[in-house]
Design brief:
The chain is of the alpha+beta class and 125 residues long. It contains 2 helices and 6 strands.
Amino acid sequence: MPRVRRTVSLLTLVLLLAIPISSPRPSTADASSPTVQRFQIGERLSYALSWGKIAAGTAVLEVVGHETLSGRQVLQLLHTARSNDFVSFFYPVNNRVESFIDEEALPARLLFKRREGKRKNDIEV
């Protein structure tokens, strides 16, 4: 059961990162209002991962591009997490999560390729 909780927690975290905190929308009556873009193609967030004071690896969340999924325009987000050489000697991590969200920031599809230690599993939601 802990493995399921961990997977669900990670999926929840990824989905929460995809939802904007505030999303002001221009009114349809005012055509002069600029269009709000929540995500820019090429936008990238990089994180240094650590266990206490030990550097453990890196994680990156980036906006890859637009695609059409089931007839609707979606945005593809890519999250990768990798352990560094030192940590990989004990517990290698090479995770890849692809999220597809529509213009309302609602999830449309999720692909999770988990590679942690000896565990390897792919999840599609």
